[in-house]
Design goal:
single chain, about 20% strand
Length: about 325
């Protein structure tokens, strides 16, 4: 009896495995990250790939398209056919911060993209090159920068990126005179920080991890509303008196409008399976982030809230695209 039951289960599983993939599932799916290879966004996305592939019954490949503060990757996704072959591994800068700065974008991110799920979040981190700015706190940093008017450059992930907006908001509140050097790739930003070509900048914690680990950068403050559990010794900007910069970086899965609802449902199942995996949770934590699998509606609300917050920050700090 038990042998027949096991045999039946095996046959049933084999039938499911051999069942044809529906025609609306592409044979291969491109998951575009609007960051360079090796970025925290891409490393988080890579943890979800096997689960998305299994859920779709199709190969899901991660591709990087950096540039324009994330706009290059986003625009490539929006130009692609809405058949599920091209999806977006979005982040807070490319999806919300950039849209807050560039009001004349040829698309509306709130209507052109379908949120599938938030995947992970982490704070932005204010870091300095300790060889150029041998400071340990924000007050000390502000004093050192005021002694070097116009002579200090900061790096960012591009005009309109969250790292750009965070620095401009802080600069405006503290009355700092800084020069902005935007970078197309994370590798370029980190190399310039190591070399002292830029003395400071904001990086997501996921992206800052390599330079923190080898001592090329020192953490001064985080943008989370309170202290981030993985960096208990680093104060928040709010705690240090810099208001309205309590923002979080995130990684999320989005699709162009028009992608079949059945495919979106499968993607949701893939995210849920990944979220239940200890390996994925531990992998995100090892990068400095927190796993946050969410329903599409909750993710859509997060994007709307973030866009409103970034727009208010842009107006207060009078940030202009240039």
């Amino acid at each position: 009896m038990r042998r027949r039951r096991l045999l039946g289960m095996t046959v049933s599983a084999a039938r499911r495995a051999s069942a044809p993939v529906p025609a609306w599932v592409p044979a291969r799916v491109r998951l575009l990250s609007p960051d360079s290879a090796g970025s925290g966004n891409s490393r988080v996305g890579a943890l979800f790939l096997p689960f998305l592939s299994t859920a779709l019954g199709a190969e899901v490949l991660l591709e990087n398209r950096s540039g324009g503060g994330g706009r290059v990757g986003v625009e490539e996704v929006l130009r692609a056919p809405a058949n599920g072959e091209t999806l977006l591994l979005g982040n807070a800068g490319a999806v919300a911060a950039s849209a807050a700065v560039f009001r004349s974008l040829p698309y509306d991110l709130l209507t052109a993209l379908v949120p599938v799920s938030l995947l992970a979040e982490n704070p932005n981190l204010l870091v300095v090159n300790p060889a150029v700015l041998p400071v340990t706190g924000l007050d000390e940093l502000a004093t050192a920068l005021r002694r070097r008017p116009g002579g200090t450059a900061y790096g960012s992930g591009g005009v309109g990126s969250s790292s750009h907006l965070c620095m401009e908001a802080m600069r405006a509140q503290l009355g700092l005179d800084l020069a902005h050097l935007p970078f197309r790739s994370l590798a370029g930003f980190l190399a310039a920080l190591r070399a002292g070509d830029v003395a400071l900048g904001f990086l997501s914690l996921l992206n800052a991890e390599p330079v923190l680990r080898d001592g090329a950068a020192r953490a001064i403050a985080v943008t989370s509303p309170g202290r981030w559990p993985l960096l208990p010794g680093v104060p928040s900007l709010e705690e240090e008196g810099v208001r309205d910069v309590a923002v979080m970086a995130w990684t999320g899965l989005l699709a162009p409008v028009g992608v079949p609802a059945e495919l979106l449902g499968r993607l949701g199942h893939g995210v849920a399976a990944a979220a239940a995996s200890v390996d994925v949770r531990d992998g995100v934590a090892a990068l400095g982030g927190a796993l946050v699998a969410s329903a599409p509606a909750a993710f859509a609300a997060r994007i709307r809230d973030d866009l409103a917050r970034w727009r208010a920050l842009v107006l207060r700090a009078d940030i202009q695209p240039r």
